[in-house]
Specification:
By secondary structure, the chain is an alpha+beta fold. The protein is 41% helix and 16% strand. Helix 1 runs parallel beside helix 3. The protein starts with a helix and ends with a helix.
């Protein structure tokens, strides 16, 4: 994720033909020759707003998704390893979430299994 609005628009446009969304934050790597530029961009983004906007949109569209742990820490429901049993609007969820890798409506093992296969 580099630009929050572009990322949300991409989700809106692609949700009908994408099976799984994995959403994370921009992480600046010191090995990258553009580290300073990427770090400045990373620091300029309101990650809490983006994380909440992404989850709200993904749930509204009925998407299968995983929010990576670096972004998941900005979500209010995120606290270690626990299951989320309610949707963002407070209604009971039929899907179970485990936070070991991230946050979403897909178990991490299932997520990585789908990528392999």
């Amino acid at each position: 994720m580099i630009d929050p609005e572009e990322t949300l628009e991409l989700i809106r446009r692609a949700h009908e033909f994408v099976n799984i969304f994995a959403v994370g934050k921009l992480n600046a790597s010191r090995k990258n020759p553009n580290y300073d530029k990427h770090k400045a961009l990373e620091n300029s983004i309101d990650w809490e707003k983006f994380a909440n906007d992404a989850v709200e949109l993904l749930e509204k569209l009925g998407c299968t998704y995983l929010i990576k742990k670096d972004l998941a820490k900005y979500l209010p429901e995120h606290s270690g390893e626990r299951a989320r049993t309610k949707k963002s609007d407070g209604r009971p969820s039929t899907k179970k979430t485990i936070y070991t890798v991230g946050y979403g409506n897909l178990q991490p093992d299932a997520f990585f299994g789908m990528l392999k296969g």
